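Onboarding guide, step 5: your first structure request.
Type a short instruction followed by the sequence, for example:

Predict the 3D structure of this protein.
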Amino acid sequence: MTSAAPPDPPAPDAPPPARRRWQNAFIALFLGYQLLAPLDYYLGEQGYDERFSWRMFSNVRMHECTLSLSDSVESGGVVSDREIDAKRELHVAWFNILNRYRPAVVEKFLSSRCEKPGVTKAAAVRRCTDTDGTALPVQRAEYDCKSGALREESPAP
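The system replies with structure tokens like these:
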């Protein structure tokens, strides 16, 4: 009868078991964070903000969207609306971010319109169609220059 060979001794450069537990725990936490972090995007309320999402699984970038911008100007007691040509006023990179409807950028742009003489409010309206051609809910934002309040009507993600 043959006896089983004794187990090999641990390699002399292997870290002690307690240290390996901490390393394994760190690796497990890191991987867990990498897997769970995108859930904030998918379960959160920022459905159109893809900066931190797994874009390969999303069709948001495939939506066809148009953005209409306008402001209301008061002159001589008469208020009139006028369309804003954002492509002329903004760098193409900022226009693209605005067109993606990132809330902070939309609010900043609309509030900056209040610096123009006579402007009482500014508005943004974004209309999109899905990849199959169906219309998606319209997103609207209106900035009141007097109160500094932003009112948004955006669809739930």
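Each response can be followed by summary notes, for example: The chain is about 30% helix and 25% strand.
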